User: Which sequence fits this backbone?
């Protein structure tokens, strides 16, 4: 069964850092773009970053640009989201998802993880 599993949930103080991981099982990520999304309470889901394992292109939303780095391991089995200078407004459930080939506004994310909670607070 193909699935994605996120890890790295936690409570972080403002200004701190956290790395989230997204691991695929039942399929490989070679032909996929992996997006990271987040949804805060009462807000719509937001795509914050994406990486294509086809051409290594990346995308960052303005809300996280300069504070977040997305990367993929050499085996193309895990995608990481390194988050620095975290703010309370980064508090949300973070999800990873896989779409064929490339990151774009039209990417069709077929597989989703269950989500992992990140809380930024004193």
Assistant:
């Amino acid at each position: 069964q193909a699935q994605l599993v996120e890890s790295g949930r936690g409570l972080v103080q403002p200004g701190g850092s956290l790395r989230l991981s997204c691991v695929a099982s039942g399929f490989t990520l070679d032909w996929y773009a992996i997006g990271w999304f987040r949804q805060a309470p009462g807000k719509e889901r937001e795509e914050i970053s994406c990486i294509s394992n086809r051409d290594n292109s990346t995308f960052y939303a303005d809300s996280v640009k300069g504070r977040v780095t997305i990367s993929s391991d050499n085996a193309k089995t895990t995608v990481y989201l390194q988050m620095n200078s975290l703010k309370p407004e980064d508090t949300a459930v973070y999800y990873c998802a896989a779409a064929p080939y490339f990151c774009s506004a039209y990417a069709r994310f077929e597989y989703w993880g269950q989500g992992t909670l990140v809380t930024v607070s004193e």
In short: Residues 12 and 120 are 5 Å apart (CA to CA).
